[in-house]
Amino acid sequence: MKQLKEYIQETDYCTYCPMMCRFACPVVSNDGIEAHAPGRLLALINLLRTGELKPNEDAARIFYQCTECLHCNVYCKHDISPSHVLRKAKEAIVSSGFVPETVKKARENLKASENFFGIDLHASLKAVVPEEFFRTSSKLLYFIGCVMAKFYPSTVFRGLQIFNDLGKEVSLYPDPVICCGYPYLALGDMTTFKMIASRNMRILDGYDEIVCPCPSCVHTIKEEYRQAGYPVKTKVIPLVSYLLPFVKEGILSSKPPQYKRLAFHDPCFLGRYLNIYEEPREILRAITQEEVLEPQWKGRDAVCCGAGGVFSLTSPDTAKAIALERIEEFRSAGADAIVTACPTCQRWLGKTDSLKVMDIIDLLHSTLLSPKGKGRVRVG
Ligand code: SF4
Ligand code: SF4
């Protein structure tokens, strides 16, 4: 894995570039602070790389001004990925001892509960999900991630019911629910990330197939674990890709969805990281029998919800402003509800309380034909 001092081309190019990427960055577009533009951040990292800038409190704050959305990459003619270099700068800052409070708190939470939130997610899931879905004999794992476990346990249950309806024996992660490690990676806490990756790799390789409703978990387990030296051999599949063939087979009823004008928000991790744009749209078209409503910025050009890269923790006000602007795009497109396929996007866009935001799982669950499996246990 490359070290910060080896990022010479990236930091030099950005230092002298006219910054074609700037307008794509949701952070500087919203807070208007030019020092937060991707090229400016990398020019600062150039000074850190050469030793002209010593790690300090201000640098610790500024290097977290990124949602890791990769939108800047789309416009960079030099194939530079600023957020990847920023990760290295965050790692350098954290390993120099300038550990931001958010990192300290995240570490404490992991110690207390094996996840980023510091609460017993297993207990809260067990309050909603029947015991049969915690079986350890199943070779198909539904790796839900901490965000869905914490905020949307009913959606977890609905996802499990869909597997059940398809006749697939599936199980949740064994007790306790553990984080995939992405938040620690985004915070620059590589030590904690590697500890999680090494532990998860051993457990995940005990399954034949892993399906995740959270695209950042998919990317982290497939790609970041490998890069950190902990490759997972088991196939990891995003839920939308797993379900699309079944949808094509005809598992849907003709029941119309509650909302008429549905638009799709591309999560950065599903789109720019995993290159998945069509699968969720095909599922949506199958459900509504209509073309999917699109906001102005969509597909590989979709704007981040604001919460990527744990930015909603490190800069909540800007993150909220980004979400509100994104919501306005959907409103202008005439949407009466937004569908997405990422619990972080669902939560952050939904927090604005402006438009209904739902996961594609909930929509699909409401339109499935009668089950092929053992029969559905309804969410109360
Ligand atoms: S990321 Fe690319 S476009 Fe943006 S400042 Fe750097 S070199 Fe220029
Ligand atoms: S990854 Fe997104 S938030 Fe980060 S610098 Fe690029 S455009 Fe800005």
Describe, in short, the structure shown:
The chain has 380 residues and is mostly helical. Helix content is 50%, strand content 6%. The strands form 2 sheets. Strands 1-2-3 form a 3-stranded parallel beta sheet. The protein has a 3-stranded parallel beta sheet with strand order 4-5-6, sandwiched between helices.
- N- to C-terminal distance: 48 Å
Say which molecules are bound, naming each kind only once: iron/sulfur cluster
Number of strands: 6
Mean pLDDT: 91
Q: Which strand-content bin applies to the residues?
A: 5-15%
Q: Give the low-confidence spans.
A: none
What would you report as the Rg, rounded to the nearest angstrom?
21 Å
Task: Write down the domain tally.
Answer: 3
Instruction: Report the principal-axis shape.
Output: globular
Count of discrete alpha- or pi-helical segments spanning 4 or more residues: 20
Compressed to H and E, one letter per element, the order equals: HHHHHHHHEHHHHEHEHEHHHHEHEH
Widest sheet: strand order?
1-2-3
CATH class of the largest domain: Alpha Beta
**Given the helix and strand composition, which structural class is it?**
mainly alpha
